[in-house]
Automatic annotation (TrEMBL):
Assembly and oligomerization: Component of the GINS complex.
Family, per entry: Belongs to the GINS2/PSF2 family.
Domain GINS subunit residue range list: 76-147
Protein name: DNA replication complex GINS protein PSF2
GO cellular component: GINS complex
Transmembrane segments: none
Keyword terms: DNA replication, Nucleus
Family annotation (Gene3D superfamilies): 1.20.58.1020, 3.40.5.50
InterPro entries the record matches: GINS_A (IPR021151), GINS_bundle-like_dom_sf (IPR036224), GINS_Psf2 (IPR007257), PSF2_N (IPR056784)
Gene source species: Vicia faba (Broad bean)
Recorded superkingdom: Eukaryota
GO biological process: DNA replication; double-strand break repair via break-induced replication
Cellular compartments annotated: Nucleus
Start and end residues of each DNA replication complex GINS protein PSF2 N-terminal domain: 14-72
Amino acid sequence: MAGQSNHELSLFSAEELEFIAEDEIIDIVPNLKMDPLCLVSGDFGPFTPQIVTQVPLWLAIALRRRGKCSIVPPQWMSVEKLTQVLEEERDSQEMSEHLPFHYVEISRLLFDHARDNIPDAYMLISPVKVRSLIEDIRDVRFHKVETDLEGFNGFTIAVKVISSMFLAVQWFVKVWNVAPM
């Protein structure tokens, strides 16, 4: 019925969050020459071989599937940067602000569609290490919020930095005992 909502149904699924994250802008290196694309979300291009261009993640994935580009992983996906963020997360009660809102979804999409574009100059295990670091950061953040919620008695709480995937977790609604807005 219109106007009524079931809070279990109003939570975003992982797939829906990935769909939303696909609008994030990412760098690609095209291997074709093409005029700019005029899309509803904006103009992207021109595409010139070996010249970095910014496009939405969904377009980068579509071009990559057709062999028209390689995807440049975001700087925050480097082993060094993720290690630094993980150390900050473990050492501080606050959440690090060095990762984008959709970091879980972006990394999952890149692992699914551009795994071989995640380079490491020294060894072939970089994608495994990057994925492990992202999972560790997510776990540390979940633990921080769970710990904070255990002692929570008030009506409001300010959360500065959190990811979209965290907001979709079913237990979050159960712990707070409220329906999402």
